[in-house]
Amino acid sequence: MVRFDEISKHYVRELDKYSLAELCRKPSENEWSLGQMYLHLPHSTLNLQLRLAEECMALGGGNEEGGGKTEAGHAVFEQGSFPSVRIQVPADLQYTPPQPESKEQLVAKLEEARRRMHEIGASQQNIDPERLQRKATHPAVAFGALNAVEWFTMVEMHYRHHLLQKERLDAFLQTAELLG
Description:
This protein is mainly alpha-helical and 180 residues long. Helix content is 61%, strand content 3%. The chain has helices at 2-14, 20-24, 34-57, 71-79, 103-125, 129-132, 148-179; strands at 135-137, 145-147. The chain has a two-stranded antiparallel ribbon. A hairpin with a 7-residue loop joins strand 1 (135-137) and strand 2 (145-147). Residues 14-165 form the DinB-like domain.
């Protein structure tokens, strides 16, 4: 949880460097802006990873037998991180976050995700370990079936993975500023 707090606070501190216009600037039509990436992080935390962790922990939730992890799922957990490659999702409304309305919106969403991480992390301490082993399958089947602890762990890995995208977008913004 300490690593997640550190990285989450890092994202919030970094927002001071950007104007809203910079946060909304896209390198190309098919790529996300920095602001869209910022919205993606808490959105996927709250609506995917933590939702599935809670589903696993709920009485009668998850799948007790569960399926297993895919090869990619095993690799991610063995490495403790996503592969350092660009992952492109389809450019449609289901996956593409909107542009941010304000920097305050981004801070509020990141803080909401951080608060929920603390709440769910605390609830995992007081739950029957057997319920923590129930599994829910990744919707895109990318990682296969993960248990509550794995879904919870996935959040920090996901935030860390997007630091690579943030570096690319920072470089884009610097180049765009130089070209004026």
